[in-house]
């Protein structure tokens, strides 16, 4: 389909060029005429500039700047248009002087002025028309891309919801059961157990009731991760040589982030980074300012598990969600050595 569209566009450009230069039509553009052959060179050069302006704006400037920085796009597009229109005007004047010396620069000032302004008006008018068409074409592509992205998000969300329902046995029943166990442990004086049950209940409450949107405040996501880490700590005792270093940055921030986007990386850290026989370190940090978010997690790797495949389906799903929720606005860098594993995730909002 893409090749067909490209072929169709090339055909349109070539057909337009042939039509203008068709001998029997005897068309002229300013001082360029079909009869004396100047029309062909002039329109070839003009078509090349029209294509540069059209595709430069529609496929480069618009997609990269208009949704990010509208003011920067306006300035860049204006400079781009003026630059290539000026270049075309200079070359056309030089070619006109070479091909038709009777209209050259040594004639009267009035003739030179008329020739100059007529040519400039013609060139800039044509280029402006193609610039406007390119805006329509570019915005149409952006709209179609956004529609396709929204459809993919809906399909992904539906698939996730179906998978969640298939893999759960009445989560609301489990949630209510946890609350009952919490109350029972409190009545029996087992405060440690009731505390851990409460953390698990908070995890489920967050998963069930607070993550039905694409983005949540980072403060809520951090609270969820803290409860998850506290439950993971139940695997080892205070005497084990395990060190968990946490730097959440501004943990009370309302900075928006996709829910559960960080969890797979933390799950990997606890899966591959903990050994009760050797020193284990997990270091987690979050930094964010303006529209840039940076998450780093590193952990030790132990020989008896270092050859395992890191991440598996968890990282596959993470990469898929990143492409859907942060298209062209994310960077996931994973660095692995024999002794350590480090993942750096950068996200851009806006």
Q: What distance lies between the first and last C-alpha atoms, to the nearest angstrom?
A: 31 Å
The averaged pLDDT comes out at: 79
Number of helices: 9
Task: Give the amount of beta strand, in percent.
Answer: 5-15%
Order of helices and strands: HEEHHHHHEHEEHEEHEE
Which percent bin holds the helix content?
A: 55-70%
What would you call the structural class? alpha+beta
**Gross geometry:** elongated
> Which sequence of strands runs across the widest sheet?
4-6-7-9-8
Folded structure, characterized:
The protein has 350 residues and is an alpha+beta fold. The protein has 2 domains: 2-162, no CATH class; 210-348, Histidine kinase-like ATPase, C-terminal domain (Heat Shock Protein 90). It has 9 helices and 9 strands. The longest helix has 58 residues, at 109-166. It is elongated and about 105 Å long.
């Amino acid at each position: 389909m893409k090749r067909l569209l490209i072929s169709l566009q090339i055909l349109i450009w070539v057909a337009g060029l042939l039509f203008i230069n068709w001998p029997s039509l005897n068309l002229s553009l300013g001082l360029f005429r079909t009869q004396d052959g100047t029309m062909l060179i002039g329109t070839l050069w003009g078509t090349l500039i029209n294509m540069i302006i059209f595709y430069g704006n529609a496929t480069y400037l618009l997609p990269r700047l208009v949704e990010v920085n509208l003011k920067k796009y306006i300035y860049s597009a204006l400079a781009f248009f003026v630059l290539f229109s000026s270049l075309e005007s200079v070359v056309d004047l030089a070619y006109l002087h070479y091909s038709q010396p009777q209209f050259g620069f040594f004639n009267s000032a009035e003739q030179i002025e008329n020739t100059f302004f007529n040519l400039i008006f013609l060139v800039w008018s044509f280029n402006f028309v193609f610039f406007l068409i390119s805006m329509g074409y570019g915005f149409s592509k952006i709209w179609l891309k956004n529609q396709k992205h929204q459809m993919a998000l809906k399909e992904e969300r539906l698939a996730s919801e179906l998978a969640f329902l298939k893999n759960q046995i009445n989560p609301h029943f489990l949630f209510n059961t946890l609350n009952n166990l919490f109350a029972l442990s409190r009545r029996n004086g087992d405060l440690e157990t009731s505390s851990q049950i409460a953390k698990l209940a908070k995890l489920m409450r967050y998963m069930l009731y607070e993550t039905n949107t694409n983005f949540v405040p980072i403060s809520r996501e951090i609270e969820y991760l803290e409860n998850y880490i506290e439950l993971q700590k139940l695997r080892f005792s205070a005497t084990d040589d395990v060190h968990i270093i946490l730097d959440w940055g501004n943990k009370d921030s309302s900075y928006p982030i996709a829910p559960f986007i960080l969890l797979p990386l933390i799950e990997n850290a606890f899966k591959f980074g903990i050994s009760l026989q050797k020193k284990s370190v997990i270091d987690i940090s979050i930094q964010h300012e303006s529209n840039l978010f940076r998450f780093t997690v590193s952990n030790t790797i132990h020989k008896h598990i270092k050859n395992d495949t890191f991440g598996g389906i968890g990282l596959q799903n993470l990469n898929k969600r990143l492409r859907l929720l942060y298209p062209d606005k994310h960077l996931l860098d994973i660095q692995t050595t024999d002794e350590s594993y480090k993942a750096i995730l950068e996200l851009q909002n806006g």
